[in-house]
Structure of S1/P1 Nuclease:
Amino acid sequence: MNIKLLLLIPFFFLTNSTTEETVFWGKNGHRVTGKIAENHLTNRAKKKIDKLLKGQSLAFVSTFADEIKSDRAYRKYSPWHYVNMDLDQTYEEAEKNPQGDLVTGIDTCIKVLKDENSSEEDKVFHLKMLVHFIGDLHQPLHIGRKEDKGGNDVQVQWFGKGTNLHSVWDSKMIDDYGMSYSDLADNAKDLSKKQIDLIKQGSIIDWVNEVHKISVEVYKSAKIGENLRYRYNYDHFGTVRTQLQKGGIRLAKVLNDIFD
């Protein structure tokens, strides 16, 4: 056997991952979005959300949708974490998953929360899921290609250790930056009211199409097997921070529309 091929085999086995393991912002990413959202809620929305969550913060509940993945009873919600699209497609043009997708999940959560006949238990569950899904929407590789599971099968290295492109964008860059989620949230860009209002504009589908344009660039940003290091973080962490902040602002916008 070719010696180069022999050396590559361990790398691909060690870096193989599934969508069950890495289809979400890392915990810190979701918590950043949740904390930023809290800063943009109306007082009325804050009170209603606080009552439902019994004092738990949006940052605290933001990882709930990932925590329940190990329970088979919640397996049907797995497709709600992402949208599969070809790089040259919009959401409207893409083939839809019959089991639903991220847009389906967000729409369902909003409907349950707006329905006066929904039980408190259902509202709490779907509120936690909504917080997570809006975060997922803003991770570019959640709006990725079906054939590589949103970058999960795009094998790369991170400082010499095997991983995949999805994981780099989920958590590797965030963890490498070395700040807590609260520090990242507190140090988000200082935006004007006009800038914030522009971020809030559009529908869920508009946001999906916007993020998908970033997905196209993310796929171009690394080659299979490439060793990504300091330069990659330098070039792309600004986009990560922007997406986390947009996710928080838009999450607050959706929650204010529901609860205000």
User: Anything to note?
Assistant: The radius of gyration is 18 Å. The longest strand covers residues 155-158.
